[in-house]
């Protein structure tokens, strides 16, 4: 039987990797479609808002990577047991997303000198503000981002946090052992470990 | 009995108004705490990430306005009946939020000439891209943003869309009757109509 889910994104980890991790963790088959950049312009207009990833299921199409991750997190039992617990997960994910959005100017900057200035500003204003607070949250939650146990928020962090090192060229989590351990724990889950071994090798 | 929820924000509609609408719609009592800007600096460090709104309930505190709105949307039965339906709601809310995030540079710009340039760019690149697509979604969904019926996505749009006019000084939805009607329908709900009459009068 053909997979019931079709995920379309570029041939990178990027915004789709949380989704791929959740499919793998839940042993849900999916079609992992990877569009080459040169093939994207003619396809763009056929997507709901001209952006990827999109997920197709039962003849329906949706976008928005975090919304898709939440859906799968619930499906594979990495969500809360009541709505307040789900709110705790959602709030920390949106905070991680707020932090990540402050890195986008660095990705966009092509001038190396200007990029260096932006990186220093992000280290000083963004990382040094958010990371100690997030580290304290993980410590309080017994090594996880919410509920004192593994949730899809940890999957989100494990797949998004490599961008911190990528934009700065540094080991940004070096002084945050609890945060680092979240990523290591997720990546050591048998299904994820196996996925990391076999997934397409891409730069980010 | 004291309300079981305490919402803390500034004395504006802003990011908290979706939440207030949902409390009112569901007839859930809440303490509507409004911090004056001059009293904010000493309070800032006591919040999880130095930002408002925050919601307190049963001795716990969470931030993130959209996450809180989702929680309340489910509580007051303005959510989906299964997880795919919830994904459809979440995806359109995140798309509205993507569009809104492109307005923030206008809010921040103090120079009137530069502000005008930014407004024209937003009209050309953002509104003219998103609004026709959103208009088509609402038309397809029988006058709502998702599921062919009233959901918390409509509440989000009703409370967020006045910002489009505020930043541009124009009636941005004038040529989008379906979008305009979503706002009107939400604002005409008896509990919301009453809230609009009695709520504190603020500029935005």
UniProtKB/TrEMBL annotation, chains A, B:
**GO MF, any single term:** glutathione peroxidase activity
| Stretches assigned to the GST C-terminal domain | 82-204
Which InterPro entries does the annotation name? Glutathione-S-Trfase_C-like, Glutathione-S-Trfase_C_sf, Glutathione_S-Trfase, Glutathione_S-Trfase_N, GST_C, GST_superfamily, Thioredoxin-like_sf
Keyword set, alphabetical order: Transferase
Query: From the record, what ranges are coiled-coil?
Result: none
List GO BP terms, alphabetically: glutathione metabolic process
> Per the record's keyword annotation, is Transferase included, yes or no?
yes
Q: Which reaction does it catalyse?
A: RX + glutathione = an S-substituted glutathione + a halide anion + H(+)
Q: What's the Enzyme Commission number for this chain?
A: 2.5.1.18
Q: Which ranges carry the GST N-terminal domain?
A: 3-80
> According to the lineage, what is the superkingdom?
Eukaryota
Similarity-based family: Belongs to the GST superfamily. Sigma family.
Subunit info here reads:
Homodimer.
From the Swiss-Prot or TrEMBL record, give the protein name.
Answer: glutathione transferase
Organism this protein belongs to = Zophobas morio
